[in-house]
Amino acid sequence: MDRKHPLAVVTRAGRHGAAASDDVRARQAEQIRERVRLMIEITARRGAYRRGLVAASRGLSPEEAAILSDLEQHGLQVPQLHDVLCGGHVLVDDPALYEDWKFDGLSRPRLSSHHRDIDKARYPDIGMRGHVVREKLHGRTAQGTWVQLEKTPAAFGKRKLPGPSDVLHLVDYVVYRVTRSNVGPWGLSRMTERRPMYLAPVVAMDTSLSPPVARSLTAALRRIEEDDDVTAVSQDLAARFPPPDRQDLAGDLGQALTRGGGRGLFGNSEVWVTETPSRPAARVLAASRRPPGPESWRTGGRDE
After folding, report:
1. 145-150 and 182-184: which strand pairing?
2. Digit-coded pLDDT (tens) for 156-167
3. pLDDT (mean) for 167-172
4. Where are the domains of the chain?
5. Distances (CA, A) of 72 to 4, 208, 267
């Protein structure tokens, strides 16, 4: 199973018994962990979380980072990460993730009431604990994988009696029934199994347009392109730099975005820029610049 980022290669060594590649991939894995930690810190600036999230993110394990990174690879945006961390129910149309998120020594079969239409004997739900995810639970859907983070794990099973953790899990269920919100490790989310977050939905398909529809669509796209070009800059510049002449604008639809991508990682989120002012640069810019005197004109501006 071919994972698409170096972190997955390192964690796969734990799953399948393969040796870790080398120090380069290990450093790349750490960079991805740091990327996920930064995503968490960005959402913590805007969204309300329970205390301790930023501190917990410093102990983010490679397995936790692999799961969150996989969600990003399938279109998760930074604002949506808030719902994931608060227990939002996520559907991803990628069945391979079900196996990818099984980690040797960490993952274990779990009982849950989610997606009862799936054969649980063939595809049991899988739990995993971590600093950030607390209790990650995932399983199969008809054409993909679902995942949800929980505040409290349910420890009981077929041959295990309920314990204190199961009592707390029952309390979380009562909160869910009252608030109609999932109880995640860092807050509440309205993204329940009935109203899930849907990533990478398999809804695209190739189709042909009839000539009248293609002409109408091309005319509309050309009009939008011309309006954007005129309003984006002054009209004199727009006339000097016309857009490229493409006869079939409708043919560009669906081809510019790779892997069904959308607006990107940050989407409609607010982006903060934190900069440390440079004191030497500030002194240079603040200094008054006097024009050279007549003596410098005679010498060509050189000191002699």
Report:
1. unpaired
2. 555 555 566 666
3. 69
4. 6-199, 211-250
5. 12, 31, 12
Q: Which amino acid is at 142?
A: A
Residue 102 in contact with residue 43, Cβ under 8 Å?
no
How many Å apart are CA 131 and CA 119, to the nearest integer? 30
With the C-alpha atoms ordered 172, 47, 42, 282, is the resulting torsion angle positive or negative? negative
Query: Which residue is it, tokens 């939008």?
Result: 224
> Which residue carries 């099984």 as its tokens?
102
Taking each helix axis as running N to C, give the angle between helix 62-73 and helix 6-16, from 0 to 180 degrees, rounded to the nearest 10.
130
Q: State residue 245's pLDDT score.
A: 62
For the residues of 164-179, what is the DSSP string, one character each? HHHHHHHHHHHHHHHH
**Structure token digits, residue 22:** 């080398």
Question: Is the full-model pTM beyond 0.70?
Answer: no
Which SS3 state, helix, strand or coil, does residue 221 take?
helix
